[in-house]
Amino acid sequence: MEANIIDGKALSNRLRESIKSRVEELKSRKGITPGLTVILVGNDPASAVYVRNKERACKQVGMNSSIIKLGEDTTQEELLRHIERLNKDKGVHGILVQLPLPPQIDPTQVINAIDPRKDVDGFHPMNVGRLVTGQACLEPCTPKGIIRLIQETGEPIRGKNAVVIGRSNIVGKPVSLMLLKNDATVTICHSKTSGLDEICRRADILVVAVGRPNFVDNRYVRDGAIVIDVGINRVDGKLVGDVDFQEVRQKAGWITPVPGGVGPMTITMLLENTLQAAQQNE
Ligand code: NDP
């Protein structure tokens, strides 16, 4: 039997409706309009598209949104000055610096400069530390979206074997922590893992964040597993995931498509985080 599709676009649309009404409520109750400022440094075309999509999504739900565009040759000091100003600006509840940054800028220093209460990407060490220790925090958007997609299946995460392929700071590590927080038994795999296919075949939940087109095929998948494909790869002008969708859908119980799975949820979680940051400042 073919896998059920976990429709990230439909779930996103539902969640955005709910965010929109919560934004309206915050406006009418407290006179606060949540505001996100995105800083885009340089001319990366993919980053420009992501930033435009974020701005459009903010407007759709009634949030304020602005983009600060800085040149490719921007110095780290200039960028840090912008962040310092935004940290103090009461109308700005969320600050996001679009990655990657040009080579003269150290992303770690930039992330560390953002006020953790405005760190809607959830990358600041304060938020990461709070996530590790199980405290409330601004959670990183893609992992947060992945958990929602898994919950959408109606299958409990508790007690499940979860395998995550990838250990990046933005996807693999945080999603592993969140699965653990939800009482899964978690295995984290990476490029030095031996016997990867065998480990993956034990997964009830398989999260794939590798960045290689069609990396995961049926040899990695247990019958009925929940498979979350985080990958965004461009092949011959088409977007494809890290999972061979056509093959794996014959074996998995649930699967996310690319596009239309994790991608839309990432932006929706950014909206949720911006709303959360604005509510904290009430
Ligand atoms: P990174 O390149 O930072 O990390 C990739 C991970 O995959 C690394 O941990 C690496 O291991 C591991 N890996 C690479 N090759 C293998 C292999 N042969 N076997 C096992 N593990 C391997 O990528 P990101 O985590 O940033 O992103 C992953 C994918 O998700 C990308 O396609 C990216 O575009 C996409 N993405 C999608 C988002 C969305 O909103 N949908 C958001 C963010 C990312 P090692 O650590 O040993 O090098």
How does the SSE layout of this entry go?
Blueprint (H helix, E strand, L loop, with lengths): L3 E2 L2 H23 L4 E7 L3 H16 L3 E7 L5 H13 L5 E4 L9 H7 L11 H8 L8 H12 L8 E5 L6 H10 L3 E5 L6 H5 L4 E4 L17 E4 L3 E3 L2 E3 L4 H4 L5 E2 L6 H19 L2
Parallel strand pairs: 1-11, 2-3, 2-4, 5-6, 5-7, 7-8, 8-11
Antiparallel strand pairs: 9-10
The site of NADPH dihydro-nicotinamide-adenine-dinucleotide phosphate has 24 residues, from helix 10.
Task: Note down, in words, how this protein is organized.
With 282 residues, the chain is of the alpha/beta class. It has two domains: 85 residues, 3-Layer(aba) Sandwich (Rossmann fold), CATH 3.40.50; 124 residues, Rossmann fold (3-Layer(aba) Sandwich). Helix content is 41%, strand content 16%. The protein contains ten helices and eleven strands. The strands form three sheets. A six-stranded parallel sheet has the order 1-11-8-7-5-6. A three-stranded parallel sheet has the order 3-2-4, with helices on both faces. A two-stranded antiparallel ribbon has the order 9-10. Helix 1 packs parallel to helix 10 and helix 2 crosses helix 10. The longest helix has 23 residues. It is globular and about 50 Å long. It starts with a strand and ends with a helix. The model has no long low-confidence stretch (mean pLDDT 97). The structure holds NADPH dihydro-nicotinamide-adenine-dinucleotide phosphate. The site of NADPH dihydro-nicotinamide-adenine-dinucleotide phosphate has 24 residues, from helix 10.
